[in-house]
UniProtKB/TrEMBL annotation:
InterPro entries: DUF1836 (IPR014975). It holds the Pfam family DUF1836. This is DUF1836 domain-containing protein. It comes from Ligilactobacillus salivarius str. Ren. It comes from the Bacteria.
Length: 169
């Protein structure tokens, strides 16, 4: 099978839950880690551990869990962090989240993030030839998020390419 075809097929069915589809019941740390990691596994090196989440709480990237449980807003922000951390420094992640909080609700920002990721990823992996126009505003936040997702998508593609190459040898 052609390597390019094989790589593109690996993300063909990639979908993340929309904000309203995130768990209604708050999750404990282990459940939160498993929930996010399972959905991002297809991206390869996009991983999240319990200690990473605790560190993000400690550095105030996300709000502290209430009674050790994480709600939809925290889970949505953790999806963004898990994806973006591979191309951004911790301080820049914090600034990006602060910009998002000043600009949009977590629900609006997360849904935009998911739509952009599901738009850009197939483009980078060669499953479509043009990017769709997502959203009707062109804010600083949207421009920044678009570029982060482009970087993440290209990194995911390169990682998958060389992983496949190593398996072949």
């Amino acid at each position: 099978m052609n390597r390019e075809f094989k790589i593109s097929q690996s993300i063909q069915n990639f979908k993340l839950p929309r904000y309203d589809d995130l768990p209604e019941v708050e999750l404990y740390l282990d459940q939160t880690t498993a929930y996010i990691s399972e959905r991002l596994e297809i991206l390869g090196d996009v991983k999240l551990t319990n200690s990473m989440i605790s560190n993000y709480v400690k550095h105030k990237l996300i709000r502290r869990p209430v009674k050790k449980r994480y709600a939809a807003d925290q889970i949505a922000e953790l999806f963004f962090i898990a994806v973006a951390k591979n191309v951004m420094q911790l301080s820049d992640l914090k600034a990006a989240i602060e910009l998002q909080r000043r600009t949009y609700s977590t629900k609006v920002a997360y849904n935009y993030f998911v739509e952009e990721l599901e738009n850009i990823l197939p483009y980078v992996f060669g499953l479509k030839t043009e990017l769709d126009e997502i959203g009707n505003e062109h804010t600083e936040y949207q421009h920044m998020l678009h570029n982060i997702i482009m970087a993440v998508s290209y990194k995911a593609y390169i990682d998958k390419y060389y992983s496949d190459l190593r398996q072949e040898n």
